[in-house]
Amino acid sequence: xxxxxxxxxxxxxxxxxxxxxxxxxxxxxxxxxxxxxxxxxxxxxxxxxxxxxxxxxxxxxxxxxxxxxxxxxxxxxxxxxxxxxxxxxxxxxxxxxxxxxxxxxxxxxxxxxxxxxxxxxxxxxxxxxxxxxxxxxxxxxxxxxxxxxxxxxxxxxxxxxxxxxxxxxxxxxxxxxxxxxxxxxxxxxxxxxxxxxxxxxxxxxxxxxxxxxxxxxxxxxxxxxxxxxxxxxxxxxxxxxxxxxxxxxxxxxxxxxxxxxxxxxxxxxxxxxxxxxxxxxxxxxxxxxxxxxxxxxxxxxxxxxxxxxxxxxxxxxxxxxxxxxxxxxxxxxxxxxxxxxxxxxxxxxxxxxxxxxxxxxxxxxxxxxxxxxxxxxxxxxxxxxxxxxxxxxxxxxxxxxxxxxxxxxxxxxxxxxxxxxxxxxxxxxxxxxxxxxxxxxxxxxxxxxxxxxxxxxxxxxxxxxxxxxxxxxxxxxxxxxxxxxxxxxxxxxxxxxxxxxxxxxxxxxxxxxxxxxxxxxxxxxxxxxxxxxxxxxxxxxxxxxxxxxxxxxxxxxxxxxxxxxxxxxxxxxxxxxxxxxxxxxxxxxxxxxxxxxxxxxxxxxxxxxxxxxxxxxxxxxxxxxxxxxxxxxxxxxxxxxxxxxxxxxxxxxxxxxxxxxxxxxxxxxxxxxxxxxxxxxxxxxxxxxxxxxxxxxxxxxxxxxxxxxxxxxxxxxxxxxxxxxxxxxxxxxxxxxxxxxxxxxxxxxxxxxxxxxxxxxxxxxx
Length: 766
Fold this sequence. Notes:
Distance between the termini: 49 Å
CATH topology of the domain at 166-345: Dimethylsulfoxide Reductase, domain 2
Strand content: 15-25%
CATH class of the domain at 166-345: Alpha Beta
CATH superfamily of the domain at 166-345: Dimethylsulfoxide Reductase, domain 2
Helix content: 25-40%
Strand order of the largest sheet: 6-5-20-19-18-7-8
Mean pLDDT: 95
Shape: globular
Radius of gyration: 25 Å
Low-confidence stretches: 1-12
Number of strands: 30
């Protein structure tokens, strides 16, 4: 398992340069990188031209891995709070503090007195994804929260109800499509979101070069819209009205055709009846598109042989997120583009995918509401409660009140609505442990912080993203640099915490804990063959061992020797320098990938049909004069990249985009300050007047607000920006998925002078 490809002599007093190949862990694009190292220092990072998935593409975030590794604010040792002040501690001291304080608290107040929160960076960490569930199960708490209910749970719920699993997401076949309709998404910046598609720009340009069309629907003329063949503004939150009207148009004009999946579809008649009131004329005013435009979009989808609809953040982070996500797939099904080359297809991941395991074509499906939040009664979805319920679960006395909290790679104080309330709640906890690389706006409240290795120091395999990828592949990366002495891997830290929760203390050796857990899991999964699997993976441990088992038992695997040509971890590792293993274009997979109890695509889940009454009632609600939405920049990913010099340099990006007519109406000047308010909440932001905004809509980027005392992010605090989430009501969420409402929220806005700022305003315009 060699982890460098070549050496180049520099000079006689220096070690030879080494070249390493690494999958970038900083966004969903998962680009392959070529990293050169000299004397244990990164000297260059570029795209790996031979990477079978990203083909040399790289964005600025990939280059920033050097800054992240070298960031002086990145924690390299555990921190324990003594008399309100963080002091460095050894790993033994940190685990001893947790063992001293956590078990007595659980014994006194019960398992539901604990809670866990996990953030987006964990999605790129096989160690966290593999071992965090073990900690959660050991805690036995129903209080599990994640970033999924801040951005993607509606898409996962709709996919689960229709196809039988939360990660069975239909993906545009961009390499072969002739018409791509993008709604509420900006893949040119994100390189896909729940659709892993690095270098979207080149793929879109190639589609256009062969005569294909790209159409974008968004309240902002985004970077993706700027290269599109057409762009239409839409009222934030109006997606359900547009999409339902398009579906109604297909039925009204006799344009429905199920294509290759006709035999595998349930519920067409029920859907036709449910959308009958959603005529384009009735919906046009609410969504902001003309009735004829709505009809023409539906006709184009129906009449184009290879077409796809893709929608993401804008359609999910609103009160109709699940309905909108469902209707997107409905359009793809009813126009014959589901499971069709050039339409939308399902990835076939090499490992860990539920839709490649078990009996093909049938399964248990998904269920929600197996338990509810203690205070609000919000239903569990995918094993989680809504992130917006966390503060009230900490604040509200009674049996099950959250008193101890684990946070893992999350900055919920900035990333979730009404962060000030959550911050105040965190201060009342009896005990808080954070696994994080920074003292940030959330971890500043912790009693113990356990740091992770640098991203360049850990083994990497993406568990989730190959299930969402534009092309099938198998790639993994060994560490580029050695870990600091004494620094455990993240999975080892989680095993130690699990042992403490289980009453075993912090003293058992990690290897013994891992071996025992692996033996137990293997017995459950392989039964009589368990010992053979254990024997076949001798010499491996931790996530590498789990990955080898998943690859070998997966759809391309060697079956533990039964198919010698198949995949193993050793084969994938051996392909690291050559860019991984290409497993080909996406292919039709229905019915074998379905995991619904009926073995069919369920177009008409009762919960969705019932919820479709809400937007009909909403038609009578008056529309606010001004609403706010978020946005993302290619140089940022949520809140945790504002401390890296290569990404922070350049123009100030946390500006409020305002259409010129709104600026004139409100007396706002480009570059000046304005106060944005929603109810009693307000933030101060720098105005940027831009005709890329739809009139009546303001855009402020997500993840800023680095002006809170106690955080130790020296570069980020220089230009802290305004936190859009501080404006938002944590009680607003999509009732089906529990996802927070982050866009389409009514605001007021007025100009302010410097002398009008309050002492709590720290916005620093540039």
